[in-house]
Design goal:
Blueprint: E1 3-9, H1 13-24, E2 28-35, H2 42-55, E3 63-65, H3 79-82, H4 107-117, E4 122-126, H5 131-139, E5 147-153, H6 169-173, H7 175-182, E6 188-191, H8 193-196, E7 200-201, H9 203-210, H10 215-235, E8 240-241, H11 245-252, E9 257-262, E10 264-266, E11 277-279, E12 291-297, H12 299-310
Parallel strand pairs: 1-2, 1-4, 2-3, 4-5, 5-6, 6-12
Antiparallel strand pairs: 7-8, 9-12, 10-11
Helix pairs in contact: 1-10, 1-11, 4-5, 5-7, 9-10
The protein binds alpha-D-ribofuranose (RIB) and calcium ion.
Alpha-D-ribofuranose binds near residues 38, 127, 153, 162 and 168.
């Protein structure tokens, strides 16, 4: 049974790999790619999604433009990680044909319409700030009944943040959206830094992927060569966490990960800890468990899956 998904993203080098993994998987019906302001501004995240779909020869995939900025805060971007365009690579940028553009329909309306019209339950797979998802739920709460699960990349349960000492980027950018989604009552799975830092890219992994000997796997290495620059400086190691594809890998093979159903609530306004995911891992509060938080990943299985799927791409 194929899983119908909407991939909501802010490409972003790791979002790009998530798009490619989803598109390569027969088990997934990628209903649409909705973009949000995050790593870079919305125009660039949309354009980068179009670039990735062009590279893998999937200009049949529909790309939608969503929220430019978080619900309350100004947009905070990460050009320091992803470069000016958000998908900087050493080689020539991908040219997108003028006939391949974002859909006219707004991402929020696409999410609502798709959830309402689908007979099957939809998986929402956000890998950027949760603004589009939150706005869709606020605009039409009735879509909840058609959403099977929200599997999101974001947060940090028991490890340091990557944007402040206590906050991961996606949740830091729009903490209000994160709480709206966490409070929705929909089945939630959190692929936070705890697990994404267990699936690290390095030169060895790039060589492993390039054994596929196709342009998509070569592009993977081009993306990672740029993406590892910032991480080497921050983490002082060649190993770079491959965050966003964990969402799609979980959908394809949940056995790669393990975790626990706990309560997660996000700090919204504190100057010091805005965006912190406060994860009640030990159950010391009486707050209702609302999210399956992953804390372990099998990186060998993860990269075997990634390589096998990328082998099916052009
Ligand atoms: O903290 C990592 C997350 O923030 C990833 O989704 C990355 O693409 C950025 O959006
Ligand atoms: Ca992202």
């Amino acid at each position: 049974m194929t899983k119908k998904i909407i991939l909501d993203c802010d490409p972003g080098h790791d979002d790009a790999v998530a798009i490619m993994l989803a598109a390569a998987s027969k088990e997934i019906e990628l209903l649409g790619i909705t973009c949000v302001g995050g790593n870079v501004g919305l125009d660039n995240t949309v354009n980068n999604a179009l670039k990735v779909c062009t590279l893998i020869e999937r200009t049949d995939l529909k790309v939608f433009s969503g929220a430019k900025k978080p619900i309350h805060y100004d947009l905070f971007t990460a050009e320091y990680v992803h470069g000016k365009t958000g998908l900087d690579i050493k080689g020539d940028p991908i040219e997108v044909s003028s006939s391949y553009k974002a859909q006219e329909q707004d991402a929020i309306d696409f999410i609502i319409e798709t959830c309402k019209s689908s007979n099957d339950q939809i998986y929402l797979c956000p890998t950027g700030p949760l603004t589009n998802i939150a706005l869709s739920l606020q605009k039409d709460p009735s879509i909840k009944k058609n959403i099977k699960e929200i599997i999101f990349m974001g947060g940090a349960a028991m490890c340091l943040g990557n944007t402040t000492p206590s906050a991961e980027f996606n949740i830091f950018v729009d903490p209000h959206a994160a709480n709206i989604v966490l409070d929705s009552g929909i089945a939630m799975t959190m692929m936070g830094l705890d697990v994404t830092h267990q699936v690290n890219v390095n030169r060895q992994i790039m060589n492993y992927m390039e054994e596929n000997n196709n342009k998509s796997s070569k592009f993977f290495s081009e993306l990672m060569e740029f993406y590892t620059i910032f991480h080497k400086e921050l983490y002082e190691t060649e190993d770079t966490p491959l965050h966003d594809p964990c969402v799609i890998a979980y959908l394809l093979d949940p056995s790669i990960f393990s975790g626990k159903l706990v309560n997660v609530i996000v700090e919204e306004d504190s100057e010091l800890t805005r965006g912190e995911t406060v994860v009640d891992w030990l159950g010391v509060t009486n707050r209702k468990p609302n999210c399956f938080v992953m804390d372990k990943a099998d990186d060998k299985k993860f990269f075997q899956l990634l390589k096998n799927k990328f082998a099916t791409l052009p």
